[in-house]
Specification:
Layout lengths: L5 H4 L5 E4 L7 E5 H15 L6 H15 L3 E6 L8 H9 L21 H15 L4 E3 L4 H10 L5 E3 L12 E7 L5 E6 H8 L3 H11 L12 H11 L4 H8 L2 H8 L24 H18 L9 H5 L2 H8 L1
Parallel strand pairs: 2-3, 2-5, 3-4, 5-6
Antiparallel strand pairs: 1-7, 6-7
Helix pairs in contact: 2-3, 3-5, 8-9, 9-11
Length: 321
C-alpha cells in the first residue's frame, strides 16, 4: 500500500516518459511489486500454472536490456516489527500467506508460499539474463531508495509510495512495452518544487493519513493533512511534532490554507477531527516517533556493504561512467 492517498496527492508531478529515455540508465527493481503486477495480469488471463507472469517479466527485462540498462533485482527480507499490525489486517482479509505473528520483532517471510516460489522463479530468470539480485534486510523499496540516494542507481521501479519516505529521488511506478512504450515517472525534485513536500513532510503525511506503519489519525482526510503539513513547512515539521505531539494536527486543521496542492476534495470526516491528551494519544505519539525512525533509518544493506559489493552494482556503475 505505502502511504494512503499519496499517489493521488502527488498526481500532478507524474510524468509519462518514452521508454527509450531509460537508455543506459542504472535501475533497481522492487521485484515483489513487479511480480504482483504480473501476477494480477496472469490471474485475469489464465491460471498461475501457465506462468504468464514469467513471460511478462522476460519481456520487461528484454526491453530494458535492449536499451543497455543496468538492472538489479531487490527482494524483500524480513517483515519489520512495526508492520506486523498491517499484516494482521491483511491476514483477516485473506490477502497474505499465513505467518506466525505472535512476535514483537521482525519476522522471516514464509519462503514456501506460492508468492515466494514466484519470486524464486523470477530470480532464476534474472540469473539467466545476468541480472543480479540483492536480497533486502527488510523492505525492498527501502533498499531501492538507498541505492538511488547513494547514486548507485539512477532510479527505481516500485509501486510502493513510501519509497519516497525512505529517500528515493527518481521512481518509476509502471512500465508499458510495445510501440509507443513508456514509463510512469516521479521525481522527488518535482514534488519538492511543485508541492513543497520534502521527505519530512511525506513522513508526517504517512502518520496523519495512514501507511503500512501507521493507522493514521481518525477523522483526518488528505485535504486537511496536506494543509496542516504545508502550513508548517518541511524543515520544521518533524521537530514541531516532537515538541507538541499529534495535538499539532488539531491546531493545524483549524487554519485556513491554500489546498491547491492536494487533488482530494474535502470530505465530512475532515471536519470531525478530535485529538485530545488521553493516554491513547500519548501511545500514538510514541508510535509516531517509531514511524519516523523506521523511515529515516530503515534496516538496509549499506552502500559499502559486502552484499552491495557482491551484487556487482558498484562495478556496473563504474562501467557506465
Amino acid at each position: 500500500m505505502g502511504v494512503k492517498n499519496l499517489w493521488d496527492i502527488i498526481e500532478s508531478c507524474k510524468k509519462t516518459i518514452p521508454l527509450h529515455h531509460l537508455q543506459n540508465k542504472r535501475v533497481s527493481i522492487d521485484l515483489s511489486c513487479w511480480m504482483v503486477q504480473l501476477q494480477n495480469v496472469n490471474k485475469s488471463h489464465c491460471s498461475l500454472k501457465d506462468k504468464l507472469y514469467i513471460k511478462g517479466l522476460f519481456h520487461r527485462l528484454r526491453a530494458l536490456i535492449a536499451l543497455n540498462c543496468t538492472l538489479i533485482f531487490v527482494t524483500d527480507g524480513s517483515i519489520p516489527a512495526i508492520k506486523l499490525s498491517t499484516y494482521r489486517r491483511r491476514l483477516k482479509s485473506g490477502t497474505e500467506d499465513e505467518i506466525n505473528l505472535n512476535n514483537t520483532s521482525s519476522l522471516r517471510r514464509n519462503m514456501g508460499s506460492e508468492f515466494s516460489c514466484m519470486i524464486k522463479e523470477a530470480k532464476l530468470l534474472g540469473m539467466a539474463l545476468e541480472v543480479p539480485c540483492l536480497d533486502g534486510v527488510e523492505e525492498a523499496e527501502a533498499q531501492c531508495a538507498l541505492l538511488n540516494s547513494e547514486s548507485l542507481c539512477d532510479g527505481c521501479f516500485t509501486s510502493d509510495s513510501d519509497v519516497f519516505l525512505f529517500g528515493a529521488r527518481t521512481v518509476y511506478r509502471d512500465i508499458c512495452l510495445g510501440e509507443g512504450g513508456f514509463v510512469v515517472c516521479y521525481e522527488m525534485a518535482d514534488i519538492e518544487r511543485e508541492l513543497g513536500f520534502g521527505r519530512n513532510s511525506l513522513i508526517t503525511l504517512s502518520v496523519l493519513l495512514g501507511s503500512d506503519y501507521s493507522p493514521g489519525v481518525r477523522g483526518l482526510g488528505p485535504e486537511s493533512a496536506c494543509r496542516i503539513v504545508e502550513s508548517i513547512g518541511d524543515k520544521g515539521v518533524l521537530q514541531r511534532i516532537a515538541l507538541e505531539g499529534l495535538s499539532f494536527a488539531r491546531k493545524g486543521s483549524r487554519k485556513q490554507g491554500c489546498s491547491r496542492r492536494c487533488n482530494h476534495k474535502e470530505n465530512e470526516s475532515d471536519r470531525q477531527l478530535n485529538i485530545n491528551g488521553s493516554e491513547r494519544d500519548l501511545q500514538g505519539e510514541k508510535h509516531f516517533q517509531q514511524v519516523v525512525g523506521a523511515y529515516l533509518k530503515p534496516k538496509c544493506h549499506s552502500a559499502d556493504s559486502e552484499a552491495v559489493h557482491g551484487s556487482n552494482i558498484k562495478e556496473q556503475r563504474c562501467s557506465k561512467s
